[in-house]
Amino acid sequence: MSKLQLSVAIGDYDRMRPLVDGLVQIDSVDAQYMLLDPEEIFFRAFRHADFDVCELSLSSYSVKTAAGTSPYIAVPVFPSRAFRHTSVYVRTDRIKSPADLKGRRVGVPEYQLTANIWVRLFLEEDYGIRPADVSWVRGGYEHPGRIEKISLNLPSDVVVESARPDATISDLLASGEVDAVIGPRAPSCFDRGHPNVGYLFSDPQATATDWYRRTRLFPIMHTLGIRRALVEKHPWLPVAVTKAFERSKAIALAKLSDTSATKVTLPFVEEQLGAARRLMGADFWSYGLEPNREVLRRFLERHHAEGLSSRLLSPEELFHPSALELHKI
Predict the structure, then answer these.
(1) Distance in Å from the first CA to the final CA of the chain
(2) Is residue 329 scored above 60 in pLDDT?
(3) What pTM does this model have?
(4) Which residue from 57, 81, 257, 319 lies 20 to 30 Å from 295 (Cα-Cα)?
């Protein structure tokens, strides 16, 4: 019997390489991998459902799932996670602390991006900055005209405007037309060393480490989706996909731990790995529902409170039931 041929769109991460290189196979699947930037994957997935299996923005997927319109059903695999205290860039000549963001204009590539939700969560909980306290300006980081991938129904007190058609968010920060930018990438004016553009937090890693110690939250950015029509036809597929991605991550972590010859082009890899495990435990990049129930619950509560999801989802609703229980020996 021939294998099921599937298109799989993912980012080029170490935890994916064993799959892409063929070291790990998805049971009974001939996978054709496409290594793409997240922005391209998400746009094509949520606008056109281009892929059979793909990485999904947790926020966009939650919007669609709550509305009952998602073409994908997820499995509890989390290709991207990140602390987002590094995701707030400000005009350092006028923003000296989080309190200074009140009443300011803040640029975003899209309001509903997962990274932005996590930032708004800690800005409100730790510093009292509510979404309504800021005027939001939406646009492309480096290319004008970026739009929200999906329609939003925001609270009436949240103001979101579009950037000028000829301007980018990076341009507006550099010129001072916005006071800050929040998003998953650094704007190019920051990378170029603009004298008045810097991080909101002087030491984002230390701030994020303190936040983790208090909250035990390692933010999830992306999950992994399978086309619903495929799952209905092949009910074994969610478990097969979950198993393969788990194996691939385990191999990547084993390679990272092999310090005989560093696998990453970066010094002090073993020291950073040890520090992460001391802070967060051995399984710091966990897949599965139960190890991530609390972080998913907090995200979904925030997502609904911001008016992004039409109803409050439970963590279980995000995933295909068969992928929540894997056998043990």
Answers:
(1) 28
(2) no
(3) 0.95
(4) 257
